[in-house]
Amino acid sequence: MSTDTTPSRLTVWAGHTMILIAVLHTAMFAWLAPWASWLAGDLRDRSDGNDSMVTFWALPGGFVVVLVLLGLLVSRVGRQGQQVPGYVGWALLGWAALAIFLIGPSGFLGALIPAGLLIAANLTTARTAH
């Protein structure tokens, strides 16, 4: 069994991992969301400092949709034999590190995986180019 660690393979896995993180995050918190209340327009009433707004920002208003889109884009780029710019991995790493620093160990630890894969893909390409 071969273990292909080409940059494009690492990039595809990074994309798949981002999608998985977004799906797991949604699965963990979607049951907390007052969907009927949201659809009725209750989020527009900001006078009440309720948990509904926090839940909204944790789910559809937060990073999950963007993370799925980024994961799909990164996977596609990897399948095409390319890689994303190095700053994408480093930015994910910085974002996760800041979040972990601010709130402690959490699901943000999972973001270290795609960040590491993208950084490794970039470093591997840079090393083989020289």
TrEMBL record:
Keywords, ordered alphabetically: Membrane, Transmembrane, Transmembrane helix
Regions crossing the membrane: 12-34, 54-74, 86-103, 109-126
Keyword Cytoplasm (UniProt): no
Protein name per its UniProtKB record: DUF6463 family protein
